[in-house]
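Researcher: Let's continue the batch. This sequence belongs to XdhC- CoxI domain-containing protein, and it's 105 residues. Same format as the previous ones, please.
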Amino acid sequence: MRDVLPDIEKWRAQGEKVAVATVISMIGSAPRLPGAKLAVSEKGELTGSVSGGCVEPAVVQAAMEVIKNGQPQLLEFGISEADNIEKIGLACGGTIRVFVERLDW
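Model: Same format as before. Here are the structure tokens for XdhC- CoxI domain-containing protein:
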């Protein structure tokens, strides 16, 4: 959290709403470990990372929804043999679960 906190504090001081996405679990290979965070301001500014690649835009989109409606989301990204190539997933073959919540402090 320390790596994203300065930007969160800046955005909150400017009166912006903020959502934080946190990797809460992983199975197999994944680019970021549990505890990794991505913060998103209501203007769409970003700090931190939960994975990179094609997963990050989906997490940012969910964060923007959470900022608007206040409803947290639990996301899961991974690839199985049954998934088609167009589904968002991790290229490294692992699975991550990401919890997205709005900061209301």
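Researcher: Any comment?
Model: The longest helix spans residues 55-69.
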